[in-house]
Write a structure and sequence with these properties.
The complex is a heterodimer of chains A (about 800) and B (about 180).
Chain A: H1 13-26, H2 56-60, E1 78-84, E2 90-96, H3 98-101, E3 106-110, E4 143-144, E5 150-156, H4 159-167, E6 170-175, H5 182-185, E7 212-220, H6 223-232, E8 236-245, E9 248-249, E10 257-262, E11 268-272, H7 277-288, E12 295-298, H8 315-325, E13 329-332, H9 335-340, E14 344-345, E15 348-357, E16 362-374, H10 380-389, E17 400-409, H11 423-441, H12 445-452, E18 459-460, E19 473-474, H13 480-491, E20 504-514, E21 525-531, E22 537-541, H14 550-562, E23 569-572, H15 590-617, E24 624-627, E25 630-633, E26 639-641, H16 642-651, E27 660-665, E28 674-684, E29 690-700, H17 707-726, E30 757-761, H18 784-796, H19 807-816
Helix pairs in contact in A: 10-11, 11-18, 14-15, 15-16, 17-18
Chain B: E1 2-7, E2 10-15, H1 22-28, E3 47-50, E4 53-56, E5 69-71, H2 84-91, H3 101-114, H4 120-126, H5 138-151
Parallel strand pairs in B: 1-5
Antiparallel strand pairs in B: 1-2, 3-4, 3-5
Helix pairs in contact in B: 2-5
Classes of the chains: A alpha+beta (about 800), B alpha+beta (about 180).
Organism (chain B): Haloplanus ruber
GO molecular function (chain B): 2 iron, 2 sulfur cluster binding; metal ion binding; oxidoreductase activity
Pfam family, one (chain B): Fer2_2
Chain lengths: ~800, ~180
Amino acid sequence: MSKTNEPNTDETEEERTADSSKVEEANPVEWDEAPNNRKEPTERRVVSHREEKDDAKKIVTGEAKYAADYAREFPNLAEAKIVRSDIAHGVVTDIDTSAAAAMDDVYAVVTPDSPEVPNKPYTSAGQSYPEPSPWDLRVLRRTVRFVGDPIAAVVAEDKDTASKAARKLDVSYEEYDAVFDTAEATNPEAPQIHDPDEVENHQPGADYERNVEANVSGEIGDVDAAFAEAEERDDLTVIETEWETPYQSHCVPEPHTTIAHRDEDNRHHLISSTQVPYHTRRQLSHLFDVPVKDIQVSKPRIGAGFGSKQGMHTEPIAMALAEAADRPVMVETTRREQFHAVRNRRPARVTLRSVVTDDGNLRALDMDAVTNSGAYGPHGMTVSSAVGKKPLPLYTHTPNIRFEATAVHTNLPVAGAFRGYGAPQGHLAVEGHMDEIAHELDLDPIELRSRNVISEGDLDVASGILKDKEYGRRIRSCGLGECIAEGRAAIGWDDIEQPDADHLHRACGMALTIQSSGVPGDELGAAHIKMNEDGSFILQTGAVDIGPGADTVMAQIAAEVLGVPPADVLVQPSDTDISPFDHGAYASSTTYITGQAVKKAAEDARGMLFEFASRMLDEPESAFTVEEEAVVSEVTGESVSLEEIGYESMYGDEVRAHVMGDASHCTEESPPPFGAQFVDVTVNEETGEFEIHNMVYAVDCGVALNPDLVEGQVEGAMHMSYELATGDGIIFDEEGQPETLGFRDYDMPTTADQPPMNSIIVETHEPTGPFGAKSVAEIPVNGVPPALSNAVRRAVGVRIGDLPITPEKIKAALDDD
Amino acid sequence: MEIDLTLNDDDVTFEAARSDTLLDVLRDNGYAGAKRGCDTGNCGFCTVIVDGEPVKSCIRPASQLEGADVETIESLGTQDDLGPVQSAFVDNAALQCGFCIPGMIMRSKVLLEETPNPDEAEIRDALSENLCRCTGYEKIIDAVQDASTRMSGEADVAADGGYPDGDDAGCGCGYPDGGCGK
């Protein structure tokens, strides 16, 4: 995906200008938009309406079936317990399995030596092929690199028996020194966590002798020259800030669960809680050396993902255990495993330096991020890259920008994909830094941003900072100005009244946010739609609905094209045997990428409807449109119902052909959604305690195809963003033993302590998106940490740059003042 | 061991192991609406009603249930005829992945039986042991308030579980919809 790009400092100003005008020309503002893609609000029959989520009724009756709910369909189902390392670094010298294996109702105990367990390196990251993540994992491990590494597994008649047997395993270790801090880990004297010869598919900049998983960098303009100039000139100011974010748990409601079995055709079938059924199928095929055609991955309802299910965690062990036990096996992780053995948001330390003119124009931004991958590298290079390349496009006009990211291994839990994908870590730095500039120059923070921020019609080059110079992203929709105006009004930015008590100080803080809509040039979505006799449709897509309502949005898009109510488009859940290919639910891509494939497939089917109508009404196809479950002639007003066409197409006298449509969609475009986060806080200067009165987030996601679902995304993401800002994250003792073992140890906000919040939808029209839509799932998770940090700064004058923001830190900072 | 109890108004006898919890017994017998989220009583996804009280079934030993009166999500309305709390959750879009929702609805049902017209603070207090990761709780609070209104007969409830009458006017889109703001 990303690659390093050494800046060419010998390049002349003329050459740079020539480069940039080439990129300008290659990315024109004009876009050849499909007919009927842009609809006025009154013309929209189904999209941008608050349609009911297609699974809502079965959820409220308890009938929605998640992976574990399929257990009863397998009368001889066995259950598993994974045995995990209880030391942070070392090697397993012996595992005595005899006592466990001898127990009644224990079907198998597997270790790395078991023939059913593959011993190839792979990555758990559910990404495009070849994955931009190192292949550094084994299904079961002899060398252990964090507390939680799987070393063996037991399968038994039920979970209790498996757990009892697991406790009878006698494991001997040779312990190694461990390292838990990224700064210490890159010291040449530090314990080395990976042998580079044991890792395949190394990522750019890997230096395993210094525990560096990846290192990438890029530059626009000449940053060193800009800082050198600042030293010489009084009207330029240099500002430097540092930021730090902790581990965060996804807290997915449904623990990762897989049922693996052989079906009646002797194929491997997995029912699994995954965001990436197709990647999982391919990766299992490679790992187990089984043809792709012999594996089926079915996605049932999913109890949310947030990135944690963008990877294989339970699938390989379940498949190996099903072979070892010769019967269906369910692997259901415990909550404790969820917190420290699955995946988390990667901690990051970010430094940001800038050069700014006296009147608040950014001249240079120099950003450096060091992130903690933990013991293994899934998503390490790509998330670390995103720390910079996601937020920096807000200020793409800055003539000199440099970004370097280093992903470092430690003997702590494994970081992975997590909603925002590096952007929250980067936004804290960039948007916190902007307020420090505003403070230094005595400018209003909103005014400072308005002078520098990206807007509609601009060419964003900052998102390509790690790519070659040919890259630019044209901004064809940007509602940031309106997001700021509406958010500012809603939070009461201009009307804050100070509390009567002298020790209480109230202020608003804000932060701008940006994300993408899919991975440009990478993701593929596809769709197939077929009509039933009665004019209803069955839609098959690889869109993986993990909870937000993707299936509902897909039905709305198809229904808008076909002139039917969304309830007449039945969406089948993603299944590799049935659905067209899709990269999966990640990178905020589903509505933008797969949605466009659905739109094109529905238009393809509509073409067939018009062919039938032409014969049935004896009018040219060009005369037709669809409305209210019928094809209608705009010339004569004659119409034929979809049901009539349905019966004619299948049983008619003239032409028999099934009304169907197919399409794929892949694009170089990835238009950013935008948003503005506001937080209103009162801080007690004596204790450091603070109260958040309100959080407002105004979002531009293009046309909101379903406002209920958009608000749901914004509110849920703001909850997570608030938790990142104020929660303790995951804590370890000095031996790397996790102290956060369950929900009671973790600061996930409840109804009682979640501060009030409001979501505002600002509509723009994105010409490259289906009916004008951009993404919305990730962007609202970026804003609360910087907005709250900025609010506290404005209230009491101290900067908390290392999350979480706590009363203790505020008090300590005030005492230092 | 065998346990006799009343489940959703039926007298039933379940076979259970000594270590089984109520959640184990329910799920083993096909009452899978209650979800397993933590097994430590900290998430509330497995909430059911026992003798009128909300109970986290993952930490209630099955052996203590002899003679108990247990209600699960399966006792409420069907998809064709939702109960008022269920339809309020649907109509307020108060669900995403849905994994917490059966427990959330059962907890809300007890609240509304005990406190028919709760204010927001009472709702937030009552639901504070039921986690939700998707919604930020905003629409869930709205749904419980709406359910309270419906149950006290102050608003019509659409027979199909859709929007209450009068709430779908304005957009002229021709589809049964409400509040789309158009």
